[in-house]
Design a protein that fits this description.
By secondary structure, this protein is an alpha+beta fold. It is 21% helix and 37% strand. It is built from three helices and eight strands, in the order βαββαβββββα. The protein has helices at 37-43, 84-98, 166-181, and strands at 13-21, 59-66, 72-79, 101-106, 109-119, 126-133, 140-148, 151-159. An eight-stranded antiparallel beta sheet has the order 1-2-3-8-7-6-5-4, with helices on both faces.
């Protein structure tokens, strides 16, 4: 259900180290584990940001596309048991709201980060978009989470020239793949 390379902007190439999945297996059930607020904000600045929810998935697939300028598009599909997908969306919204303004450390330097959160009506069963920017960055990151039944689609689009908003259109295409598979 992940988007194929042909759907990703041509300058981005598949990063094999960012490709993982449970394949035909399943993760064992796990108890939700709250992520401390101080750690949650730092977890938002990367491809596996769905983990800030503290709820393990039953299965997942992900891959990352990058270029030499450190631009990135990462896509992940996580399938959950029971009502866990709804709980993940609520936890993500709470973390993004709590982390409206925080400081992150990258390569030993501190950067002030602002998160602008909004809902994305009509994308899956529920969806949200968060744009991360800093006055010290050349560009920013756009993260999208969308729930389709028991599957949560998350993307991370980092662009050195803009805020990575191309990721919204790619996420909508990914949600269509998930919807078609259900």
């Amino acid at each position: 259900m992940l988007l194929p390379a042909a759907a990703i902007p041509h300058q981005l190439k598949l990063d094999p180290s960012g490709t993982r999945s449970t394949a035909d297996g399943f993760n064992p059930p796990s108890s939700p584990s709250a992520v401390p607020a101080a750690k949650a904000c730092d977890m938002l600045n990367g491809s596996a940001w769905v983990n800030v929810a503290g709820i393990g998935s039953a299965s997942f697939a992900q891959n990352d596309y990058t270029d030499e300028a450190q631009d990135m598009f990462a896509q992940e599909l996580d399938a959950y048991r029971g009502s866990d997908a709804k709980a993940v969306m609520a936890a993500l919204k709470q973390a993004l709201t709590s982390c409206h303004s925080f400081t992150t450390v990258q390569n030993g330097q501190k950067f002030p980060v602002t998160v602008v959160l909004k809902s994305l009506p009509g994308v899956g069963d529920e969806a949200l978009q968060a744009v991360l920017t800093s006055p010290d960055w050349a560009g920013g990151s756009t993260m999208v989470a969308a729930r389709v039944g028991s599957v949560v689609v998350t993307t991370f689009d980092n662009d050195q020239k803009s805020t990575g908003t191309a990721g919204v259109a790619l996420t909508k295409a990914l949600v269509k793949n998930v919807t078609a598979a259900h």
